[in-house]
Amino acid sequence: xxxxxxxxxxxxxxxxxxxxxxxxxxxxxxxxxxxxxxxxxxxxxxxxxxxxxxxxxxxxxxxxxxxxxxxxxxxxxxxxxxxxxxxxxxxxxxxxxxxxxxxxxxxxx
Length: 109
Hints:
Layout: H1 2-25, H2 29-52, H3 58-80, H4 87-106
Helix pairs in contact: 1-2, 1-3, 3-4
């Protein structure tokens, strides 16, 4: 169950990065609404991460959490912010995904 919680925490990490990106694009009320979304996602991500590390070693959980957040943020940037899709970006995101899967596979718990 804590592995599922960890993955959800990673998605919330992508969520708070997405909100930061949207805050760059707006002003006024929109800025504060995206800021509230940032704080909500940040809080949820940290609480879920704290819950997950109760049974998952921190040396495994933290890299997986940041990896999910990084991959999700890159994908959100490509889809919503028109960031470039280059061979090297896809290559390194792929190696990050492989590393996250590898950490999950070799985790002792």
